[in-house]
Amino acid sequence: MSQKVLLNATEVHIALHRLACQLIENHDTFSNTVLIGIQPRGVHLAERLKSMLEIDYKVRDIKLGYLDITFYRDDFRRSDKPLEANTTEIDFIVENKNVVFIDDVLYTGRSIRAALTAIQSFGRPTEIELLTLIDRRFSRHLPIQPDYRGRQVDAINREKVKVCWKEQDGEDAVYLINN
Amino acid sequence: MSELSVNHLLGIKYINEDDINLIFETADHFKEVINRPIKKVPSLRDITIANLFFENSTRTRLSFELAEKRLSADVINFSAASSSVKKGETLIDTVNNILSMKVDMIVMRHPNPGAGVFLSKHIDASIVNAGDGAHEHPTQALLDCYSIRERLKDVAGKKVVIVGDILHSRVALSNIFALQKLGAKVKVCGPKTLIPKYIEKLGVEYEGNLRKALEWCDVANMLRVQKERMEISYFPTTREYTQQYGVNKALLDSLGKEIVVMHPGPINRGVEITSDVADSKQAIILEQVQNGVAVRMAVLYLLASKIQHNEN
Question: Which domain range does residue B160 map to?
């Protein structure tokens, strides 16, 4: 197994600041915008962006929810491993809101397809955007593209992109792992 | 551990503590789902489930049907009263006829103990026992324990007394197995005639005095007096039963502590418990019903995930 650093801590930091600024450009005061972190790996990115927007850019009262997509996935009974559910925590209504989905890696697009179905259980949003730290180009199974991307990478299917967060893994970094 | 150790839920006897905890954790997620504005997930959209009720049921059948529909499964219902069973068809023939219509799972209630186990040996579908005679009623025990866990944080170490007709009760047997697997202490209480002869063999103590039993316990599970299963008289009169084994508010208040009161339903108000107890905040009877849907969703979801996906 070999691994290559795609983004180091500084580069992750720069990308996060840029993404935060792009969000502000489009959503201004976030008065009608909610952030939704996709469980499990999108949650850290969503929390990081929220605190960055609040502390560094003085945006107040940002609504953040967590969405679990396990019961909406299209590989139920098809994958070798049983699917494990995570907590959904959305204590606001998304009806007529601008929703920003936040996930760490966009790969086949199937998780986002599931998330698009799942969010309907909480109302009908005005629009939904997608923010992702890593966009794995040329690997999509569905017509889904991010509106905000940290870094676009070309990786072949047997390679794995791993995003590490200080809170969970001890460092901020993105690795390309080749098995 | 994120998979059940069994392919059928035939009884609590056949599953282990890890299975029960996995069902509870999954039920937590489904409980959140059924409290959403839209209470439905598409997980079982390619699964067909047959509810076969060879014996009357309202609550359990509705609960299963709702659980199945909230998981987006296709559902067919069957009740023995209006079926070919009356014309002399055997159980295996009835079920195989239904399975030939491509049904993946069977939820079955049957008056004969062991009907589910018997069926699981002869057919190729996932079976959930929704009550087989006086044997087991596993989903009821699971939802009872889940409700205790929700109210008292944990089941381990809790003292539970099951009061009433233990002899005819599948709820009692499943509850005893489930509570013991989760580390609770169990006593039974009721007229001696309604207590099975070898109950101590299950590691359960008998207490004849209701007041003593209630003073000992954290949770009292009041069973229904099942008149329809009693061919002979097991106690002189209903009035005498109520005087000795019925719970009323005065008795509860005199205990000096707050115990949790449960009832699997349907309640005979004024027999096992009085109305003011049934409607008090110590009673979690309606929580039990709500949790029943979430727990059954978890059971169906986890069993369905073990059914091999058919590529054709």
Answer: 138-289
CA torsion angle for B79, B83, B87, B91 (degrees, to 10)?
Answer: -50
Mutate to test the interface with A, among B38, B45, B71, B311 (most CBs of A within 10 A): B38
Q: Which amino acid is at B97?
A: N
Axis crossing angle, helix B170-181 with helix B138-152, rounded to the nearest 10: 50
Nearest CA-CA distance, residue A8 and chain B, Å: 34
pLDDT in tens, B188-203: 999 999 999 889 999 9
- Domain extents in chain A: 2-76+84-178
Task: Count A/B contacts: CB-CB distance under 8 Å.
Answer: 52
Model pLDDT for residues A31-64, shown as the tens digit of each residue? 999 999 999 899 999 999 999 999 999 998 899 9
Closest CA of chain A from B118, distance in Å = 26
Question: Does B72 contact chain A (CB < 8 Å)?
Answer: no
Q: What is the pLDDT of residues A75-103, one digit of tens each?
A: 887 777 777 788 899 988 899 999 999 99
Q: pTM, whole model, 2 decimals?
A: 0.90
Number of domains in chain B: 2
Residue B312 has pLDDT above 60, yes or no: no
Is B107 in the same domain as B40?
Answer: yes
Q: Does domain A2-76+84-178 have CATH number 1.10.150.170?
A: no
B109 is catalytic: yes
B176, B150 contact by CB (below 8 A): no
Of A71, A84, A93, the CB nearest to B41: A71
User: Are residues B268 and B220 part of one domain?
Assistant: yes
Q: Is B3 on the interface with A (CB under 8 A)?
A: yes
Let me know whether B97 and B78 are in one domain. yes
Cα gap B273→B267, rounded to integer Å = 8
Angle, helix B170-181 to helix B17-33, in steps of 10 degrees? 100
B143 in the same domain as B82: no
ipTM of the complex, rounded to two decimals: 0.81
- B90 within some domain: yes
B-chain residues near A83 (CB < 8 A): 305
Q: Side-chain half-sphere of B136: how many Cα atoms within 13 Å? A: 22
Average pLDDT of the residues of chain B: 91
Q: Does a structural domain hold residue B92?
A: yes
